[in-house]
């Protein structure tokens, strides 16, 4: 079970790095901004940045649950629950 917590984000970030060059060529340099490009950015970057609090919670060991980062992670998780 612990292995899947490492491999799934690793695959996600590896795929991101593989497609970054194509993204820069096709999206960033186009100079256009429409609903499709906005949806592309939301889909791509919410997924990437959404894993950071999950990884922090999984690997962060703290003796004080009142720390700011712990509260931030809890708020983030509640905001993205479906």
Could you characterize what this model shows?
The chain has 82 residues and is an all-alpha fold. It has one domain (2-79). It is 76% helix and 0% strand. The chain is built from three helices and no strands. The protein has helices at residues 2-26, 35-59, 68-79. Helix 1 runs antiparallel to helix 2 (35-59) and helix 2 packs across helix 3. The longest helix has 25 residues, at 2-26. The protein is elongated and about 50 Å long. The model has no long low-confidence stretch (mean pLDDT 77).
Brief description of this entry?
The protein is mainly alpha-helical and 82 residues long. It is built from 3 helices and no strands.
Task: Quickly count the domains.
Answer: 1
Helix content: over 70%
Give the CA-based shape. elongated
Total beta-strand segments: 0
Distance between the amino and carboxyl termini: 23 Å
Assign the structural class, choosing from mainly alpha, mainly beta, alpha/beta, alpha+beta, or little secondary structure: mainly alpha
Low-confidence stretches: none
The sequence of SSEs as H and E is HHH
Strand content: under 5%
Mean pLDDT rating: 77
**What profile does the largest beta sheet have?**
none
Q: Rg, please?
A: 16 Å
Count of individual helical segments: 3
